[in-house]
Amino acid sequence: MLRLARSYTTATKTLTIGLIPGDGIGREVIPAGKQILENLPKEFGLNFKFKTLDAGFELFKKTGTALPDETVTELKNNCDGALFGAVSSPTVKVAGYSSPIVALRKKMGLYANVRPVKSVDGIGRPVDMVIVRENTEDLYIKEEKIYEKDGQKIAEAIKRISEVATKRIAKIAYEIALQRKQAADLGAKSLHSKPSVTVVHKSNVLSISDGLFRETCKKIYEENKEKYNIIDYKEQIVDSMVYRMFREPEIFDVVVAPNLYGDILSDGAAALVGSLGVVPSANVGDNFVIGEPCHGSAPDIEGKGIANPIATIRSTALMLEFMGYTDPAVKINAAVDANLMADTIKTPDLGGNSSTQEVIDDIIKRF
């Protein structure tokens, strides 16, 4: 769903955004995205309508359904984009339950999870990378079984890597690298003088499954050399990728990985910029995008009014960016950067004592 930036006219456009709070602090941070959109400067010519939709583990416990058909139908037929809050994940098997966000990604064809991890000037280590995670397969297909052999239990899970899914994720990673280069040429701050894509795998051990991922990513690059020739193609074994990401994060631009590695890398990368509470993501397909903060449902702080809304606010900007509304996305991120650099209004996870709403209000004031 990569789109060119839209030009703005005096005509006002109304967009319908689905709001799926989910569980825990999802119900406290999704209102932040709504308030941000409602308070965007009128110069962008955007109005918003909202549809609040159900999903989550708490819903499953009440109704036996984690992702109602009505939610998917509304998103497909009546929404231009959506924001998803958080979902609780039980640590033990619960009969009949599976993650609604995983199911939603599949039903909506959202095959890429895109997670920018970028430091703010003067705060922490210099980081400017985007982790592109394949969203539909790998171990997350959840085809597992357990059986006994010689009186001992054995659990097995299928890891699925397909050529078609890998082609899609490789292409979007290369396109994001090109877009980031174009943005840098237009004056956006960047740590990178030349775009690069790092393909993460473990084909030295998983020569068939990860081997296919690696080979397919490389093939897409080589078959489109005329278009991608300004991109440096790189590879990294996943364990050394983790090591280098923490030792020298500034060297990575776009990183593309299968589902499981991408999940682990993107959460780990959040530590480089202070907190999961500031890291956004977007679930992207050919026709739809859902912004989703990277944090979980955080039951330990639920209801206290101190959840960090920045990941949701940045995810709102990312949603707009993938919908083609680049200018308001830039405005939102600039306001968030100003809030972080001021270092006065911040939630406890960043060392402050401000409330969720105080952070929202401060960011809106900076538009």
What is the element string, with H for helices and E for strands?
EHEHHEHEEEEHEHHEHEHEEHHH
Distance between the termini: 27 Å
What is the CATH C-level name of the largest domain?
Alpha Beta
Tell me about the largest β-sheet.
10 strands, mixed
Number of strands: 12
CATH superfamily of the largest domain: Isopropylmalate Dehydrogenase
Architecture (CATH level 2) name of the largest domain: 3-Layer(aba) Sandwich
Which helices and strands appear, and what pairs or packs with what?
Blueprint: E1 13-22, H1 26-38, E2 46-52, H2 57-63, H3 69-78, E3 81-86, H4 100-107, E4 112-118, E5 128-134, E6 144-149, E7 152-157, H5 163-185, E8 196-201, H6 209-223, H7 225-228, E9 232-237, H8 238-247, E10 254-257, H9 259-270, E11 282-284, E12 289-291, H10 310-323, H11 326-342, H12 356-365
Parallel strand pairs: 1-2, 1-3, 3-12, 5-10, 8-9, 8-10
Antiparallel strand pairs: 4-5, 4-11, 6-7, 11-12
